[in-house]
Specification:
The chain has 295 residues and is α/β, with parallel strands linked by helices. It has a single domain (2-294), classed as Ribonucleoside hydrolase-like (Inosine-uridine Nucleoside N-ribohydrolase, Chain A). It is 38% helix and 18% strand. The chain contains twelve helices and nine strands. The protein has helices spanning 11-20, 40-53, 76-79, 101-110, 123-131, 163-167, 169-176, 187-190, 199-206, 211-227, 233-242, 283-294; strands at residues 2-7, 27-33, 60-61, 114-118, 139-145, 182-185, 247-256, 266-270, 275-281. A nine-stranded mixed sheet has the order 3-2-1-4-5-6-9-7-8, sandwiched between helices. Strand 1, helix 1 (11-20) and strand 2 form a beta-alpha-beta unit. Helix 1 runs antiparallel to helix 10 and helix 5 crosses helix 7. The protein starts with a strand and ends with a helix. It binds beta-D-ribofuranose (BDR) and calcium ion.
């Protein structure tokens, strides 16, 4: 499967990248970056740091430096000043490509159908759809982290909205309305504490003597000691692609509120539609896949 990773690293984006790069069952054609957890320059540098740590040569393309409208919002309080848990990984030697993200996605999709794992605000994907409308049919499926779907669950930025959708609700609405097949991991499942990294999971990760596991531990140890557990939201989007059997999902259509008090809110109509939202996870299997992926 040919895959593009669209990210705003971000501690959990970094974990997702470490698990995706070098995975034998997928062929990662590129990484595009977007402003979100940190600004675009830092997000791009972080993507390069992770590819270097993973020993990967995959190309990194710089994407949108701000949402379709309005200002950027960051989450350094959660992800650290450097966006990677204040791990201060070495400066990368590699540089990003010159091609901008939307064009790069279009070029990657030109000769083959492409799956996308998107774990930041959806600005790059929306810009790609607007700039290359004929290329939408080349996208096999989008696996994304974003939104909150169960009426009982609440957002993590406002009571209504999840961070990625709140950062760029216009882009989220554009992508959700595109008709492309989407699998969405929302806070309903990603906040499941059984899948988060706590001290005991960190100890298990430390026991894995690989370069990947050691980088993962460097990145996640400060956030775990500060917050006691760290939710791996973005890993759910990757695992929905790699290990669909560990999830249950519900089919729906989704609209995203773009203004007012409920800005960023995902409104799902269940029954029919092009979107599957994850509704349940087998936590034991999730943990096993996580540890095996770092091994
Ligand atoms: C999402 O927001 C970011 O902080 C995380 O990286 C994840 O993509 C969770 O709401
Ligand atoms: Ca993210």
């Amino acid at each position: 499967m040919k895959v593009l990773l669209d990210v705003d690293p971000g501690v959990d984006d970094a974990m997702m990248l470490l698990l995706a790069l070098g995975n034998q069952s997928i062929d990662v054609l590129g990484i595009t970056t977007v402003c979100g957890n940190v600004g675009i320059l830092k997000a791009t540098e972080n993507a390069l740091k992770i590819t270097a740590a993973a020993g990967s040569q995959v190309a990194v393309y710089r994407g949108a430096s701000r949402p379709l409208s309005g200002k950027c919002m960051h989450a350094t309080g959660i992800h650290g000043q450097d966006g990677l848990g204040d791990s201060h990984l070495p400066k990368p030697m590699n540089k990003p490509e010159r091609t901008k993200a939307a064009q790069a996605i279009s070029e990657m999709a030109e000769n083959q159908r492409l799956s996308i794992v998107a774990t930041g605000p959806l600005t790059n994907i929306a810009m790609f759809l607007d700039s290359y409308p004929d290329m939408a049919k080349r996208i096999e499926r989008i696996f994304l982290m974003g939104g909150v779907y169960c009426p009982k669950s609440t957002g993590n930025v406002t009571p209504f909205a999840e961070f990625n959708f709140y950062c760029d609700p216009e882009a989220a609405d554009r992508v959700m309305a595109s008709g492309i097949e989407i699998v969405a991991a929302g806070l309903d499942v990603t906040m499941d504490g059984r899948c988060a990294v706590d001290c005991s999971m960190l100890a298990k990760m430390r026991g894995i003597k690989t370069a990947k596991a050691s980088t993962a531990c460097k990145i996640i140890s400060n956030p775990v000691s500060r917050q006691s557990i760290f939710h791996l939201h973005d890993v759910f989007a990757l695992f929905a692609m790699l290990h669909p059997e560990i999830f249950e999902s519900r089919t729906c259509r989704v609209r995203v509120e773009t203004a007012g008090k409920q800005r960023g809110r995902s409104i799902a109509s269940f029954g029919i539609g092009n979107i599957k939202v994850l509704s349940k996870v087998n936590a034991e299997m999730f943990q096993e896949k996580l540890l095996r992926g770092l091994s």
